[in-house]
Amino acid sequence: MRALLHSVTLTLLWNVAVATVPYQAYILAPPSRTVRPVSIFSQTGSVSSANALLGDHGTEGGSLVLKEFNSSVTYDFGKNIGGWVNLNTSSSSGSIGVTFSESSLWVSSTGCDATADSGLDAPLVFNISAPGHFQAPWDKERGAFRYLTVVNEGAGQVSVDDLWVHFTAMPHWQDDALRNYSGWFHSNDEQLNRIWYAGAYTNQLVTIDPRRGDALISLGTVAGGTLDQWSLNTTITNGTSALTDGAKRDRLVWSGDMSIAVPGIALTTFDLISVRNALDSLFVLQSPSGMLPYAGYPFNERGLISFTYHLYALIGVANFYLYSGDKSFLDGKWAAWKQGMEWATAQIDSTGLANVTAPNDWLRFGMGGHNIEANSILYYTLNLGIMLATDEGETTAAQQYAQLASRIQQAAVPLLWQPSVGLFRDNETTTLAPQDGNAWAVKSGLVTNASQITAISQALEARWGPYGAPAPEAADAVSPFISGFELEAHFMANRTAAALTLIRRMWGDFMLDDPRMTNSTFIEGYSVTGALHYAPYANDARISHAHGWATGPTSSLTTFCGGIQLLSDAGATWTIAPQPGDLSTVDTGFSTSKGKFSSKWTKSGTAFTLSISTPKGTRGTVGVPLPGNYNKALLLGGPQTASVVHGDASGRYWVSGLAGGEYEFIAIAL
Ligand SMILES: *[C@@H]1O[C@H](CO)[C@@H](O)[C@H](O)[C@H]1NC(C)=O
Ligand SMILES: *[C@@H]1O[C@H](CO)[C@@H](O)[C@H](O)[C@H]1NC(C)=O
Ligand SMILES: *[C@@H]1O[C@H](CO)[C@@H](O)[C@H](O)[C@H]1NC(C)=O
Ligand SMILES: *[C@@H]1O[C@H](CO)[C@@H](O)[C@H](O)[C@H]1NC(C)=O
Ligand SMILES: *[C@@H]1O[C@H](CO)[C@@H](O)[C@H](O)[C@H]1NC(C)=O
Ligand SMILES: *[C@@H]1O[C@H](CO)[C@@H](O)[C@H](O)[C@H]1NC(C)=O
Ligand SMILES: *[C@@H]1O[C@H](CO)[C@@H](O)[C@H](O)[C@H]1NC(C)=O
Ligand SMILES: *[C@@H]1O[C@H](CO)[C@@H](O)[C@H](O)[C@H]1NC(C)=O
Ligand SMILES: *[C@@H]1O[C@H](CO)[C@@H](O)[C@H](O)[C@H]1NC(C)=O
Ligand SMILES: *[C@@H]1O[C@H](CO)[C@@H](O)[C@H](O)[C@H]1NC(C)=O
Ligand SMILES: *[C@@H]1O[C@H](CO)[C@@H](O)[C@H](O)[C@H]1NC(C)=O
């Protein structure tokens, strides 16, 4: 009885919790871990009743019959999912093969899309000796697929009475609570809404059971060397869930990928334990010199070193602390963090800049010497170090970091800025203007001159093609990872229209709506031609269609369009400064351990209305965008009574020193 009451109480609480987060209809995570296909993509050979396995029909008694060898049906789940395939058969003999693909491009009855550098992955085969229920072995979880092909691999007819996938992502969340988001976003632009939720879902799909990482060993080939064996059986972190790079592959911890994924997670699901498990797995591999690995186990065994990914691991600690406010976590990592910073700053030479000799990065080329991306990231990390050192009460470390950062800033601009191009060059031996270094120069705050920031934003925009922003430092690649930083640069330049155009063009028109995509998760990389070829890889079938590093718009939309920026631990201090661009309504928010933060606004020709809510005990500043062209408005609401106000250069009126709570501001153009 006690147990029963307890569970009733939990259910009630749960219903209340769900009701408080609006716009649930956009959430792509399934309501339960049992997921069935929604439509038929294609079929070959002699087949009957393929639609018996769609949706709930699977439980209504009909059966798919694959009448002869090699007849097949490809089912579409309507979105990318991941897990163990299950099927029931009433046949007593025969053999049923199953293949998987994220993209429609690699749908095949003979092989899956790929996890290796060449070839396709072998099908999963169920040899039937009696009717009953069959399920994939535990190491044959498929991390991501939208299409599943069932093929008759035997001589006689076989039937399938039910087909479902046991969804395995977010293993530490209750089976019926995968939609338990703490954040939301809604605007008048439906495409942006879908993009925000697809980013949130992508980060859920790349959160895995840490016992099912990629073994990274060649398991050999089958069928004459064209199909690869695969097995997800390697433990990559401690704990019961881990944030990885990709759902299909690599299923490993990469600190660079986390730098985009973690803010997205904090503002959607607040699943910080998976972030922590991933960070811990990198820090147990820290070398005595302070150096952190390029990636987690088992990839670290390759002995590759990356200056930038080393810094991203340090950034990961700061991000975790910013969103969680968990001081004991920071205390536990602080000695290792300082040691890591010592390793990084030991690379600084007499110019004041780091000379990069650990060249691995996000698979771009030419990451060496006085590189602008690396030095911008170092500048950014040193500034985070000032914040962390201050919170740790270490003023000497904070001063040292400030001096090093200031020297980088003073050296980088004269050495690498190209005034005639409006962009930084990669290093002093080239004129190549990289996407990563220019985006990071703005994001990091290394560039403070507003006309330079504007020039960078304009010059990057001028290079866009029909499929998005190019990364010339990686051949013909479009990188949704680096483009996530580029978005932040446009927002920080107050060029909101450019940022929204890039989101719609890349993440909406192409990455969601192109028929080769999953319409639910974001791809790792592609070509400027729109081909699903990613320059660093020989094997196009290997590209991951669910990569956490491609989810930049999710945090950007909340942070810039909603305008909610946390400045210190879990939002103890904050700024809310919406950037409307061409939008007319935005409603967004999320919760941290301190409580709920939200920003809801509407813009009409002559009025801007903003409602905000922040937790009691916090403090912050609001920048109200003023409507109209004159930057002069009547401001109602907030702590002031009605007053006539003037905007700053970005058209905002600032109200500072606000105590946490609920406020409404109405600005009317005069
Ligand atoms: C499939 O098998 C499972 C496990 O034996 C069973 O619970 C389920 O009812 C079966 N489905 C159908 C449609 O027979
Ligand atoms: C099975 O069918 C597929 C597609 O219909 C075809 O490509 C393949 O060659 C066939 N395999 C055999 C062994 O006939
Ligand atoms: C299924 O049977 C085939 C043919 O006998 C055999 O080669 C294969 O190894 C079996 N597969 C499994 C998963 O048992
Ligand atoms: C939903 O998430 C909140 C925290 O964000 C947690 O307290 C709650 O237990 C979760 N509910 C379920 C059913 O998992
Ligand atoms: C993973 O599976 C492969 C293939 O079965 C096997 O060779 C390897 O030893 C397994 N690794 C672990 C850690 O179990
Ligand atoms: C798990 O934690 C232990 C103790 O800190 C550590 O030695 C081990 O390397 C960790 N395992 C992984 C996979 O991170
Ligand atoms: C300098 O940048 C160019 C262009 O990216 C690159 O080819 C070259 O390798 C870089 N130099 C070093 C030392 O990495
Ligand atoms: C960077 O260091 C390497 C190795 O010491 C050296 O060969 C190279 O000349 C240095 N690059 C610059 C730009 O100083
Ligand atoms: C800002 O940059 C512009 C363009 O490079 C330059 O003309 C101007 O002097 C700079 N302003 C300051 C204050 O450095
Ligand atoms: C963008 O707007 C902010 C807030 O008003 C301002 O501080 C900043 O200087 C502006 N940046 C540029 C490049 O105009
Ligand atoms: C893509 O998914 C959305 C839901 O997120 C759905 O409304 C839309 O119809 C889908 N588009 C296609 C082409 O299936």
Automatic annotation (TrEMBL):
Gene3D superfamilies in the cross-refs: 1.50.10.10, Maltose phosphorylase, domain 3
Residues in the signal sequence: 1-19
Source superkingdom: Eukaryota
UniProt-recorded name of the protein: Glycoside hydrolase family 78 protein
Keywords from the named record: Hydrolase, Signal
Domain named Alpha-L-rhamnosidase six-hairpin glycosidase: residues: 229-460
GO terms for MF: hydrolase activity
Protein species of origin: Trametes coccinea (strain BRFM310)
